[in-house]
Automatic annotation (TrEMBL):
Subcellular location per the Swiss-Prot or TrEMBL entry: Cytoplasm
Source species of the chain: Sulfitobacter marinus
Protein name: Zinc-type alcohol dehydrogenase-like protein
SMART domains to which the protein is assigned, alphabetical: PKS_ER (SM00829)
InterPro entries membership: ADH-like_N, ADH_Zn_typ-1, ER, GroES-like_sf, NAD(P)-bd_dom_sf, Quin_OxRdtase/zeta-crystal_CS, Zinc-ADH_QOR/CCCR
Keywords: Cytoplasm, Metal-binding, NADP, Oxidoreductase, RNA-binding, Zinc
Quaternary structure (record): Homotetramer.
NCBIfam families: adh_fam_1
Pfam families assigned to the protein according to its UniProt record, in alphabetical order: ADH_N, ADH_zinc_N_2
Organism taxonomic ancestry: Bacteria, Pseudomonadati, Pseudomonadota, Alphaproteobacteria, Rhodobacterales
Length: 336
């Protein structure tokens, strides 16, 4: 089958960065679905792995969002049948979705939204899971809870921020303050539902003080090194900071005087470690799908390619590296 992969880690314009290749059809395990991939999306993890993780064999295939149709099921599969349309974020320990066919554990797969096509649907899974787990697993906010408290989202216009803002406003009573620095990103986070917008290039604490807000929760989605001191200063005592990026140097003892909680959100943890509750990702994706179809959540796609080729995927990687993507980038799958 056809796939787009890389042969050596490094920059996107280096030799062997992305190549069209023939690879073997995936092996289907007992809990696996074999999916004809009809839509994919770009995420920061694609760039990080391409730049820093050499292929374990001659080649490696990236891609950690997909929507498609089930064409084969494993012996222990109970929730899906051949012909079902699905969407999911996959598993970083397995070959990715930039291929015609992809094998994935049914327990991390949801039913594709009926109101979106495959390409648009592929923009949802990874960011939805990340945002959901941060809100409900890390922060432990309850549905309908959070009244009188606020959440600061640093980097609100990215893929995760765009979905987190929507989930918070749809499912909780938290006040949402999102950071954005450009007029177009500020307009975007307001569209997603942010109650207040502040500029992360300015003094965060001063801007929050002007709003009369002392956040109980901070979602540190980008540039945590840069904002760490400000976060410690502005957050409420006994507040909670959750991170998704990879800061090189933060001093966690800064959090001691306020007795803060610090946690990381990594949506691949459940699939990598096959946790006992792995199937909650299936359940939450089905919730997200239902909310999309009901109109209570909206797509966060802003950039869409017409075809998946080495050239269009290379362009998507370059855009991701620019740090200026609003919402999500999506492309058709190789089986589209």
């Amino acid at each position: 089958m056809k796939a787009i992969g890389y042969t050596q880690a490094g920059p996107i314009d280096g030799n062997g960065a992305l190549l069209m290749m023939d690879v073997a059809k995936p092996q289907v395990g007992p809990h696996d679905l074999l999916v004809a991939v009809k839509g994919i999306s770009m995420n920061p993890v694609d760039v990080k792995l391409r730049e820093g993780r050499p292929p374990e064999g001659p080649t490696s295939v990236l891609g950690y969002d997909a929507a498609g149709t089930v064409v084969e099921i494993g012996s222990d599969v109970t929730g899906y049948a051949v012909g079902d349309d699905v969407f999911y974020a996959g598993d970083v320990t397995r070959a990715g979705t930039n291929a015609e066919l992809h094998a994935v554990d049914e327990r991390i797969v949801g039913k594709k939204p009926a109101t979106l096509d495959f390409t648009e649907s592929a923009g949802l899974p990874l960011t939805s899971i990340t945002a959901w787990e941060m809100l409900f697993d890390a922060f432990r906010v309850t549905e309908g809870g959070g009244a009188g408290q606020s959440l600061l989202v640093i980097g609100g216009a990215g893929g995760v921020g765009s979905m987190l803002i929507q989930l918070v406003k749809t499912l909780t009573n938290l006040t949402v303050i999102a950071t954005a620095s450009r007029p177009e990103t500020q307009d975007w986070v307001r569209k997603m539902g942010a109650d207040h917008v502040i500029d992360h290039r300015g003094d965060l604490a001063a801007q929050l003080n002007d709003l009369g807000q002392t956040p109980t929760y901070v979602a540190a989605l980008t540039a945590t090194d840069q904002h760490w001191s400000a976060i410690i200063n502005l957050i409420a005592p006994r507040g909670h900071i959750a991170l998704i990026d990879d800061p090189q140097s933060i001093n966690i003892t800064d959090a001691k005087p306020k007795a803060l909680t610090i946690s990381w959100e990594f949506m691949f943890t459940r699939s990598v470690f096959n946790t006992a509750d792995i199937a909650v990702q299936r359940d939450l994706l089905n919730r997200v799908s239902a909310m999309i179809d009901a109109g209570t959540l909206q797509s966060t796609v802003t950039e869409r390619a017409d075809v998946l080729t080495v050239e269009t995927l290379t362009d998507a990687h370059k855009r991701q590296e620019s740090g200026r993507v609003i919402g999500k980038q999506v492309l058709p799958g190789l089986s589209a």
